[in-house]
Amino acid sequence: MVEIGHFALVLALALGLVQMTVPLIGARLRDERMMAVAGPVTLAGFAFTALSFAILTMAYAQSDFSLQNVWENSHSLKPVLYKVTGVWGNHEGSMLLWVLILAFFGALVAIFGNNLPTTLRATVLAVQGSIGVAFFLFILITSNPFTRLSPAPIEGRDLNPILQDIGLAIHPPLLYLGYVGFSISFAFSVAALIEGRIDAAWARWVRPWTLVAWVFLTGGIAMGSYWAYYELGWGGFWFWDPVENASFMPWLAGTALLHSAIVMEKRSALKIWTLLLAILTFSLSLLGTFLVRSGVLTSVHAFATDPSRGVFILCILMLFIGGSLALFALRASSLTQGGLFQPISREGALVLNNLFLTTATATVFIGTLYPLLIEAISGDKISVGPPFFNLTFIPLMAPLLLLVPFGPLLAWKRGDVMAVAQRLMFAFAAALVAALVTAFLIDGSSAIAAFGVGLGIWLVIGSLTDLAVKAGLGNVKLPVAWRRFIGLPRSVFGTALAHLGLGLTVLGLVGAICFGAESVLTMKPGQITELSGKRVRFDNVAPVQGPNYNDERAHFSLLGPAGQVRREIWSSRRFYPVRQMNTTEAGIAMLGFSQLYVSIGETTDSGLVVRLWWKPLVTLIWGGGLVMMAGGTLSLLDRRLRVGAPARRSRKGAAKPAAEVA
Predict the structure, then answer these.
(1) Which residue, of 86, 156, 396, 566, has the greatest Cβ tally within 10 A?
(2) For residue 424, with 0-12 CB atoms within 10 Å meaning exposed, 13-18 middle and 19 or more buried, which class applies?
(3) E strand segments, 252-352
(4) For the segment 193-206, what is each residue's pLDDT rounded down to a tens digit?
(5) Neighbours of 531 (CB within 10 A)
(6) Which residues are 540's β-sheet partners?
(7) Mean pLDDT lowest among 128-132, 263-267, 402-406, 432-436
(8) What is the pTM of this model?
(9) How far are the Cα atoms of 353, 459, 638 from residue 497, in angstroms, in the given order?
(10) Measuring CA to CA, which residue among 48, 40, 49 is closest to residue 19?
């Protein structure tokens, strides 16, 4: 059975070679039959890749230790869920998931791209096929998950304990759906450059695929942050780790690409911007793949440490990034400029947004790669950590976030900034009051905290103001405003939700960083400690036997004013005998949007080492990410993002105003 999985992977490579060449030649020759090959071959390649992945998953579920990959990353006593998630908890299996998602997106284009021009569809699938061929070769040559062991070991070596968590079941697939999803935008850009034609219709085709990838990448980053927060036991949610940055850079560039595509679709402007951003976004995704799998980084998120694999991926990077940028340099000068607009306009606001986002991306890029460059040149090891990013990234983001509510309210082509400022007066007043109240409560000790709270409220109220203004609230009677509100396009709601989610995330970050508290102490059973007005009692600690680990589980109680138990909290230290590793399982008590976080250490003569954190509003960090995902998903449901969808007939009193504000 395992050999069938290996053979299916080889067949997928062969089909990728056909997908890469035949449709592209057909597009150049205008041969309909050759171009028609693209769809069936792409679907067949996806089917064989899915078969290969399913067989590897079955080998994990059945604990087939004759496979080296299963032996190195599984154990017969491991719960079935973690046996399955162990498929992508290692380098070889995660690469197979990577190409499976790549083939899946190609299949989606083959299925839903029938309304694309024939030559464009064929060229897009050919470019997608070329990416697949490169990574199929990489897997088969350097990272084959179907390598056999003879004789087969009786038992496996188990999966890294910190990866035996439900978060691993969600985080990597979401992240890869985002990473790899941008390959479609890249393929559309390269296809447009090959054909030498790009217009508003092209942007309308690209935008949904970009939005899908952005939604998944947002979820992947949020889930990864929360997984690290509760699993690693140090109470942090972002440490500017190079591998974290590797996923954050394509998110920033992808956000800029989304906004640029809107301008191109509406006004046929920013063509060069949009093409370049599509290339750079996927290039940064490939860079993230290189950083995680090349062995140049040491991180809890990194997979491989084999430099030969890094050299292979580096060659792939040079081929696709260098080739696409060379093609861009050759063809960009032939592209027309597109629609003109005044600096004070929605287009101008989106250009400014893109300038800030690309500069922020460059900042993260430099901070991530500079230590690697220095080490390669001089052999010296240096560290670029949070202080650098806090001093460079945050000052770039603050003015951008201040400008975010203005963008959706400005008119296309020529806007009136004073009129928009008047509409945002309530949002400004609410933000100012929130900042002043915060400054008063903390005795003015942190201007940054007060500004951060005001900024979060400004974004939240500003996004709601956008909906209120477009519904005509305050200018028309309430029933008419309601009809206009429910008649607004879904993309308008999606934009407002995304900006609202951004505001919630800002509030969560400010609350956790500026108002949090921490305590490290030793406690004995029955002892009570207090942190930020929260009284916590250590009750007891007891051993618990898990399926493949030994657990030392501590029980805590969060007490109310009268000494009653408000919450029960369990925190534990686990020992995995096979791997000879300890992990910390944090205990978390949710109090509204805030959390009391408990992590235990070793037992000493004076008691159990306990670390307590009080993190106000920290849940909003990830809640804001979910709201942003909901906004992107809602925008995807807008009929105007469905290429070829017929327009709805206007409804009296509702549809017309909605169309005017879109």
Answers:
(1) 86
(2) buried
(3) none
(4) 998 878 778 888 89
(5) 17
(6) 555
(7) 263-267
(8) 0.92
(9) 18, 10, 14
(10) 40
